[in-house]
Amino acid sequence: MKPDYKNWMPKGMIYAFLAAFLGCAALLVVFALALADGTVKTILMIAFAVLTLVFCEVTIWAALMHRAFDYNGKRRMASQIIEGTAAYVNLPNGGKCLDVGCGSGALAIAVAKRNPKAEVIGVDRWGKEYASFSKSLCESNAKAEGVSHVYFSQGDATKLRFPDEIFDAVTSNYVYHNIPGDRQAYLLETLRTLKKGGTFAIHDIMSRSRYGDMQAFVKKLKDMGYEKAELIDTTYGKFMKKWEATWMALSGSALLVGKK
Question: What is d(CA 57, CA 48) in angstroms, rounded to the nearest whole number?
Answer without folding.
Answer: 14
